[in-house]
Amino acid sequence: MQQGRWEQEREPLLEELSKVYMSHQYALLLAQEGEGLKLLDIIIKNKSYITDFGKQLAESFPKETYGIYEEYIVEQAKEATDRGKYKNVCKIIKNFYEAGGKAEAIEIIDRLSRIYQRRPAMLEELAGLKRKLSR
Fold first, then answer.
1. What angle do CA 53, 59, 64 make, to 5 degrees?
2. The pTM is what?
3. Contacts made by residues 122-125, CB under 8 angstroms, sequence distance 24+
4. Per-block average pLDDT, block size 10, for the chain (135 residues)?
5. Can you give the C-alpha Rg of the chain in angstroms?
6. CB of 68 within 8 A of CB of 76?
7. pLDDT of residue 3
8. Is the C-alpha dihedral spanning 117, 64, 58, 26 positive or negative?
9. Tell me, what's the pLDDT at 56?
């Protein structure tokens, strides 16, 4: 296929695929094709995808990506009711840290520790993660 023709066909094809693919599959395709802005739109609608695509997105859109991470982490912490869910929150924070939000990840650990002082198991998990990340 000629380069010029592909550029003409690309947008309509991506639009069509957005309707037929499940949203995570479509996000995967956008990530592979380097369509950061479209991927960002998908992740804004499906915050849980941030753990799969956050590192890639943070390279081009750090401010937006970090904002999504923070919203998602706060939502997950609010819904967490047992140690397994607290560990999952910590896993998301670690993913955030690895995506480049090092200072922001430590800050969110401190913020959650203040908010959830009556959840000793959550505090233990957050403290353990903070120790690992601060090394």
1. 75
2. 0.85
3. 122/77, 122/80, 122/86, 122/89, 125/83, 125/86, 125/87, 125/89, 125/90
4. 60 62 80 91 94 96 97 98 97 98 98 97 98 94
5. 18
6. no
7. 58
8. positive
9. 95
Give CA–CA dist 14/16, Å, rounded.
5
Looking at residue 9, its amino acid is E
Tokens, residue 73: 């982490």
Q: Name the residue type at position 88.
A: N
| Domains along the chain with CATH numbers | 3-133 (1.25.40)
Q: Is 44 exposed, middle or buried (0-12, 13-18, 19+ CB in 10 A)?
A: middle
Look-up of token digits 């990340």: 133
Rounded Cα–Cα distance for residues 24 and 49 (Å):
7
**Residue type at 84?**
G
What does the pLDDT read at residue 10? 60
86, 125 Cβ separation under 8 angstroms: yes
Residues 6+ away with beta carbon under 8 Å from 44: 64, 68
Residue with tokens 């403290």: 127
pLDDT at res. 74: 98
